[in-house]
Write a structure and sequence with these properties.
The structure holds two protein chains of two kinds.
Chain A (H helix, E strand, L loop, with lengths): L2 H20 L6 E5 L4 H7 L2 H5 L3 E6 L10 E6 L3 H16 L5 E6 L5 H9 L6 E5 L5 E4 L2 E3 L6 H7 L4 H15 L4 E7 L1 H15 L15 E6 L14 H8 L6 E4 L1 H4 L5 E4 L5 H6 L4 H23 L4 H35 L2 H15 L5 H13 L4 H14 L4 H19 L4 H10 L7 H12 L31 H12 L3 H8 L5 E7 L16 E7 L2 E2 H14 L2 E6 L2 E2 L3 H6 L5
Helix pairs in contact in A: 4-5, 7-8, 9-13, 12-13, 14-16, 15-17, 16-17, 20-22
Chain B lengths: L3 H6 L4 H5 L7 H6 L8 H6 L1 H9 L3 E4 L2 E4 L33 H11 L2 H9 L12 H14 L2 H14 L2 H10 L1 H14 L2 H10 L3 H14 L3 H17 L3 H26 L21 H11 L10 H7 L4 H14 L3 H11 L15 H11 L10 H13 L3 H11 L2 H11 L2 H7 L9 H10 L9
Antiparallel strand pairs in B: 1-2
The chains are: A alpha/beta, B mainly alpha.
Family (chain A): Belongs to the STXBP/unc-18/SEC1 family.
Organism (chain A): Oopsacas minuta
GO biological process, one term (chain A): vesicle-mediated transport
């Protein structure tokens, strides 16, 4: 079974799980939804679906709520502030002698802290607690995501996160549904090892197996720890889908285009997946190709309309009318993508963005830059009050990629950090410390050494890297995702494995940051003899990014799959863009 | 049944089981299919097991150590010398079976439930009772096992139990023993909103950097800037004491800045720029608690012509060692915001003088940057505002931009016709010059100028 079918099966499973929870209440009932979950839930159970199953009204979770029917269902993430709001609602109702039933559904699971909080309000008698175990959700035909970005900081810095458990249980589900009796699990990095430990723990437990009718097939699962490649998510993406994420922020596979972009009276929600024929063709393109593509498509559309108008016979008219069904959405889709493209182009071509991009590419080229000019440039960015995320991003790239001696880099970094605090305030101290801890702002860190080594050994920076000289419409390697300037490290390690059949180069590289790569054969039953390679119809890979991946990496993996003629599915804990790491590491001191 | 079978096989016969004061039908329940697969922990949490527990005795811990308490149904509490094991005897309801070795069996049942069972139950989200393990060794084992699950919820459950049952000193020692547990414990306290406790704990765990930052966070949240200043000074001393020099310097800079902002506040108050507060509520200047550059911008906006103390922008610049480039950039930004073109002109005359060599890189601020500032603050086209000084400044700055393409870009943004025409002629770009005609009004005198240039035979156009 293809990954796309598996995705839709998963959605059906989540829907039935939700229905079985909701069935405890007789219709009608109110649904109170955490705002941050709305687009996520919409992906799985659209409003129409919920309404057809007893949900009468849908509200967002607010501190005050005095309306609604006598049955109320809360759908929330296990966060203390959510519980506080709910307890406030219940207490208000109790004070007003309003008799109401409450059901709290935690996504994806409840926590002891939330339970204790409800207990401390003495409300456990009044509310019923449930869990809705949503794991992977399909964002596209070959892309599944856990969509759990909120714990990225804990994942990267504190190592205090539920990510290994969440991924392990997802992996366990995949293990159960895999048609193949065994598969190879490749672990890249420390967090991947942790996931494997938890996976084994789960496997050792006598868990109740859920009846699974539909199955999927894969022979190799590659778990990639985000910590092995922190450069890629720092770079500006140049593909259409990457730019959409960098500039608008893609949420759960869709993007909200404002009135300013579309010129319409209200915002437009644009679903970004293969169901949109225009998007499926242009998503990986450089934005400069998009206009010519849209122009061609428009011409084709006009031709079809003209042809339709010239029809005279009834049968021809009939066929044209039936064809109109597909032409209209196509036309609308082209218009929306054209508007989005225009806006993206305008944003990209502002002088400041051009300068930031040129500095980024200069840093990637690893040419010896004039340090004085560089410092001046950073100072001017600071006095111009350019976004703090952009400044820190470029500073991190400077620390990671610049071939200047360490001492010199430390001196410059210290100076700019000081200037940064002056411009953006003392509140960002924690952010800088977090980045230093991660090795991004500390040239002495072993991670920087690994990056420099990776650039040399894996040839991450192609010698000819100027955008003009790279044929972006017909790429030859994964560097096309960054205009020929850089090959994503994680994808290059995987590419190396797929081509060589071993992890030798990757292992050597990761050993420098005390990470390792291991491969484990996972069998459903110990009695089973290992399957012979000849028995396997074909290889099917699943690359699972722990800690998230960017659309550029998704694009690069798709390219590898096409180039090598292998089926590769992609799973991730979340989708990252160039601001994600900074947003998660920003611990602003109020 | 797995947990009970060894008990029964080691002499704990069906007859003995009756001594537990079970329900009459306990045995049949135990042997029924319903209980065939019951695990030890499920058994322990079942109602039968609860009855069993209540009927026997309790083991309690107090300050002096362990003492064995009386059964819940037993009114008399016997004094036991725990130092002499022989004197320790267990009692149960006498009329049932006074001399039977019940506790031994019970101990076996208890021991059948291992910390790993509890951890597994928490991990799977099942109801369980973590409080059954009172020995420190068991608690350590719980923590070790919880950490191995990498599950925040499981780890938090154990840590919360440890926090509730161990003294601070022992808890810190235990956390020290498992370094990975520290970060989880900090996160737990943070999520529980126990900030004070978090500061104490991080300090006790010798994480002075974290502790100092938490204190700093507390300080910056204070509404009263005077109190904030004092608390931040404490933070600075704290960082310095524990060797965090870079952090101490950052905080020192912040203290100095706050001090300067307080003196600006006092000045504004004395000059009536800030209203008097009502009663004890003081109205503070909006400049308080802003970063250096924002403060300077504020001063350039509101106190540009002041010469008094730190409310003067130049004095502020000197005090905080702000470079001329930064100062000029901020001052120009502020003055063009309020359209004070005279001050802008003065600033440019003061700072933007060329050296003998007359090269642009000798400027404090590149002309294109100044133009960019102007465009940010007031993007209206050239001559549209009617301010001659602004227009002449724009023309002169545009002419100073060395890169012709950039000069064209900015002059086009401002629709500054003379510079656009001149630059395109210098670039010898006939096409763009022809296209520019569409941007000119019909009555514009520049139309003729463009026509003249296009017709001039002396110009060799690039395209031709």
């Amino acid at each position: 079974m293809a990954l796309s079918d598996f995705g839709s099966i998963l959605v059906k499973r989540y829907q039935s799980e939700l229905l079985s929870i909701l069935s405890q209440f007789d219709a009608p009932m109110d649904l109170v939804l955490e705002k941050e979950l709305s687009s996520f839930i919409d992906q799985i159970s659209p409003i129409q679906f919920l309404k057809s199953h007893g949900v009468e009204k849908i509200f967002y979770l607010e501190p005050e709520m005095n309306v609604g029917s006598d049955k109320r269902v809360y759908l929330i993430r296990p966060i203390g502030s959510n519980i506080n709001k709910i307890c406030r609602h219940v207490n208000y109702d109790l004070d007003q002698n309003i008799n109401r039933n409450y059901l709290i559904i935690f996504v994806p699971f409840k926590t002891i802290l939330c339970e204790e909080l409800i207990e401390s309000y003495a409300l456990l008698d009044f509310v019923e607690l449930h869990e809705w175990h949503i794991e992977l959700i399909p964002l596209d035909s070959d892309l599944l995501s856990l969509e759990s970005s909120h714990s990225l900081k804990n994942y990267l810095i504190n190592e205090c996160s539920s990510m290994p458990r969440l991924v392990a249980s997802t992996l366990y589900t995949l293990f159960q549904v895999n048609i193949s009796n065994q598969f190879h699990l490749h672990l890249l990095g420390e967090q991947a090892d942790k996931v494997f430990q938890v996976f084994n723990y789960l496997k050792s437990m006598p868990l109740a197996n859920k009846p699974i009718v539909n199955r999927c097939y894969f022979t190799d699962v590659i778990l990639v720890d985000r910590n092995i490649d922190l450069i890629t998510p720092l770079l500006t993406q140049i593909s259409y889908e990457g730019l959409l994420d960098d500039i608008f922020g893609v949420q759960h596979g869709s993007v909200n285009l404002t009135e300013k972009v579309t010129g319409k009276s209200k915002p437009t929600k644009l679903m970004l997946n293969s169901n949109d024929p225009t998007y499926s063709q242009v998503r990986g393109y450089h934005i400069s190709f998009l206009f010519s593509f849209i122009k061609d498509q428009s011409k084709k559309l006009i031709y079809k309309y003209d042809k339709g108008r010239k029809q005279t016979s009834i049968s021809e008219m009939k066929s044209f009318v039936s064809e109109l069904k597909t032409l209209k959405p196509m036309e609308q889709s082209l218009v929306v993508h054209l508007c989005a493209c225009e806006f993206l182009k305008d944003v990209r071509s502002t002088p400041i963005n051009q300068k930031l991009l040129s500095l980024e590419h200069a840093l990637l080229s690893r040419e010896q830059l004039d340090e004085k000019a560089l410092v001046k440039f950073f100072e001017s960015l600071l006095s111009f009050q350019v976004s703090w995320k952009d400044i820190l991003r470029l500073l991190c790239l400077y620390s990671l990629l610049n071939p200047a001696p360490t001492k010199e880099r430390i001196k410059i970094l210290n100076h700019i950090e000081k200037q940064f605090i002056r411009a953006h305030g003392c509140g960002h101290i924690n952010t800088i410390l977090n980045l230093q801890e991660l090795g991004l702002l500390n040239p002495q860190d072993e991670y920087v050494h690994m990056c420099q080594m990776g650039i040399k050994k894996l040839g991450l920076i192609p010698k000819v890297h100027k955008t003009d000289s790279v044929d972006l419409s017909n790429p030859i390697d994964t560097s096309f995702v960054f205009g020929g300037a850089y090959k994503p490290l994680s994808c290059t390690i995987i590419e190396n494995f797929l081509k060589q059949g071993n992890w030798k180069l990757g292992s050597e590289l990761l050993a420098s940051i005390k990470f390792r790569i291991t491969t484990n054969l996972i069998s459903k039953s110990k009695c089973l003899a290992p399957e012979k390679s000849g028995k396997m119809a074909h290889k099917q890979y699943l690359v699972f990014f722990l800690g998230g991946c960017s659309y550029s990496e998704v694009n690069a993996i798709r390219f590898l799959g096409n180039q090598l003629g292998i089926e590769i599915g992609i799973a991730t804990t979340s989708i990252l863009n160039r601001d994600s790491i900074f947003q998660s590491l920003d611990d602003y001191i109020v | 049944m797995d947990a009970l079978s060894p008990l029964l096989s080691k002499g704990a016969s069906k007859k003995e089981a009756n001594y537990f004061n079970f329900d009459d039908d306990f045995e049949s329940k135990l042997m029924s299919d319903e209980y065939q697969d019951v695990s030890a922990k499920e058994f322990r949490s079942s109602s039968i097991a609860h009855q069993m527990k209540d009927s026997v005795f309790t083991v309690q811990e107090d300050e002096s150590g362990i003492k064995i308490g009386a059964p819940i149904y037993q009114p008399e509490l016997e004094k036991i010398d725990i130092s002499n094991p022989e004197t320790v005897k267990f009692t149960t309801t006498p009329e049932k079976a006074p001399e039977e070795p019940i506790p031994e069996i019970l101990e076996k049942i208890e021991s059948a439930i291992e910390p790993s069972d509890i951890i597994r139950d928490i991990f799977l989200g099942k109801h369980t009772w973590i409080g059954r393990f009172r020995e420190l060794s068991k608690k350590r084992e719980l923590l070790k096992l919880a950490l191995e699950t990498y599950d925040q919820n499981t780890i938090f459950s154990v840590l919360w139990h440890l926090k509730a049952t161990l003294s601070n000193e022992v808890l810190i020692n235990t956390l020290d023993e498992f370094p990975a547990s520290k970060l989880h414990y900090y996160t737990l306290l943070q999520q529980k909103g126990l900030e004070e406790e978090l500061i104490t704990t991080t300090h006790a765990c010798k994480d002075y950097g974290k502790s100092g930052l938490l204190k700093l966070k507390q300080a910056r949240r204070l509404g009263d800037p005077y109190k904030q200043f004092l608390m931040m000074k404490d933070c600075e001393n704290y960082f310095r004491k524990f060797g965090f020099i870079q952090l101490a310097d950052f905080v020192l800079d912040e203290c100095d800045l706050l001090d300067a902002q307080l003196s600006i506040h006092t000045f504004e108050k004395s000059t009536g720029m800030i209203q008097e507060g009502i009663g004890s509520v003081e109205i503070f200047s909006p400049v308080l608690k802003t970063p250096n550059f924002t403060t300077l911008y504020y001063l350039c906006l509101r106190h540009f012509h002041s010469n008094t103390g730190l409310s003067s922008p130049t004095n502020f610049q000197a005090k905080f060692d702000i470079s001329n480039a930064d100062f000029l950039c901020i001052a120009l930004s502020a003055r063009s915001q309020v359209k004070d073109w005279q001050s802008v002109d003065n600033l440019l005359k003061k700072y933007q003088t060329k050296t003998w060599f007359g090269k642009n890189n000798s400027f404090v601020l590149a002309p294109e940057k100044i133009i960019e500032i102007f465009h940010q603050k007031d993007p209206s086209p050239w001559v549209a505002t009617g301010n001659e000084l602004r227009d002449s400044l724009i023309v002169s700055l545009l002419n100073q931009i060395e890169d012709l393409e950039e000069r064209y870009l900015w002059s086009f943004n401002f629709l500054c016709h003379p510079v656009v025409i001149d630059t395109l002629v210098k670039l010898k770009d006939k096409n763009r010059l022809e296209n520019y005609v569409t941007y000119l009004p019909r009555t514009s005198k520049y139309l003729r100028q463009i026509g003249d240039k296009l017709a001039a035979k002396s110009i060799i156009w690039r395209d031709s």
